[in-house]
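Researcher: Structure for this, please.
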Amino acid sequence: MTSATFSAASPRYSGVAIALHWVLALALAAIFGVGLYMADLPFSPLRLKLYNWHKWAGVVILALSALRLLWRLTHRPPALPHAVEAAMPGWQVAAHHATHGLLYALFFAVPLIGWAYSSAAGFSIVLFGVLPLPDFVGADKALAALIKPWHELSAFALAGLAALHVAAALKHQLLDRDGLVLRMLPGSR
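Model: Predicted structure, token format:
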């Protein structure tokens, strides 16, 4: 099946789904990069600024994730085309569904764990410096020490799954040449 044949015969994701996918993808890549960079900075005004930006971005990502999930629950995504699904071994179909489910779970888990960590560490989130958000838990340094590694591990798990998702998309585009990626590209027909 060629990309041209596939794209003409296969349903695409909606424009809203495509926009949410790419905005969330870019936001996640940016926040992960900032998180890696800021973690090793010495205490400084720059580190404090980046931590605040990181927390604000986490809240925005949480809101985008909720919007994306709501959209997905109310707008059924197109099924894998029969020819593509038939060509995939069973483990790849299972991995496709498991990866998407885990990505959605981590879209929520990572920022919520980060929010809990920030609360336990005694640093409330004031969104954009003007809107104070409620703390998940009271300040508790011992609890913060327990939560911190979970935020890091879940963030790395999300990054790993996102990399797997990108690798699968590249496989479909470059090796299988089945055009599956065209369903999620902006502006493609």
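Researcher: Any notable elements?
Model: The chain has six helices and two strands. The longest strand covers residues 126-127.
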